[in-house]
Specification:
By secondary structure, the chain is mainly α. The chain has one domain. Helices cover 80% and strands 0% of the residues. The chain has seven helices and no strands. α4 packs parallel to α7 and α5 packs antiparallel against α7. It is rod-shaped, with a radius of gyration of 28 Å. The termini are far apart. The C terminus is likely disordered.
Length: 214
């Protein structure tokens, strides 16, 4: 399929294409950043936390703290703070629960970093595509209005229409891809969020029932 020469496009249209390219690059960069960040934070690795919790509730506090001290996952870091607090203040479970929640808030905040950037890309890409559409249609109708007898060269007219359709398609494609990526990442964050509260509750109530058990 033959496409118009990009050099023949107007400067504003070229800026729109460049902006869409920058947005797509930003989305890809943030996606790989989040993948690396989640891997380093141990997001989704619930098996380690379950093993720590089983040792803690089974009376093997030293083993539980030893595993949690490795701090390989989000949940084990939260468990470690709760267990250390319970060991130091066995009669203050409310304090341990609040401490666990504060650590959880910090972990969730770290997981949510750069997510707003993806949301911005989702919103901005279609708007830029629409801007390209308007500019392309203006060029097309401008060509038609300045042509002799109102009869425009089909090739020139098609160039403006091609610009309009291409920028719209590019903007929508970038927005859709970024939306699915952001939704998947948000799902992983939400999964951690829903797991944290029951985990803290289990560690605290299981320990409070037998505060002297080691």
């Amino acid at each position: 399929m033959n496409m118009p020469d990009l050099a023949a496009l107007g400067p504003i249209t070229l800026v729109v294409f460049a902006a869409l390219g920058v947005l797509s690059l930003i989305a890809v960069t943030v996606f790989f950043f989040k993948l690396i960040q989640f891997a380093r934070m141990g997001v989704g690795r619930h098996g380690v936390a379950n093993a720590v919790l089983n040792d803690w509730l089974g009376g093997r506090a030293d083993q539980a703290l030893s595993k949690a001290s490795e701090r390989k996952t989000v949940l084990t870091r939260i468990l470690q703070s709760v267990m250390l607090c319970l060991r130091a203040r066995p009669n203050e479970p409310a304090y341990a629960e609040e401490l666990g929640r504060q650590v959880a808030i910090a972990e969730l905040s770290a997981m949510s970093q750069r997510m707003r950037v993806l949301e911005t890309v989702v919103q901005a890409a279609p708007m830029l595509g629409l801007l390209g559409t308007v500019i392309g249609m203006i060029d097309a109708f401008g060509t038609l209005s300045t042509s002799a007898g109102g009869v425009a060269d089909p090739a020139q007219l098609a160039g403006g229409i091609w610009t309009a359709l291409t920028t719209t398609a590019a903007g929508l494609a970038i927005a859709l891809a970024t939306y699915f990526v952001a939704t998947w990442l948000e799902g992983r964050i939400e999964n951690e969020r829903q797991t944290i509260e029951p985990l803290i509750s289990a560690a605290i109530h299981g320990r409070v029932e037998a505060p002297g058990k080691r």
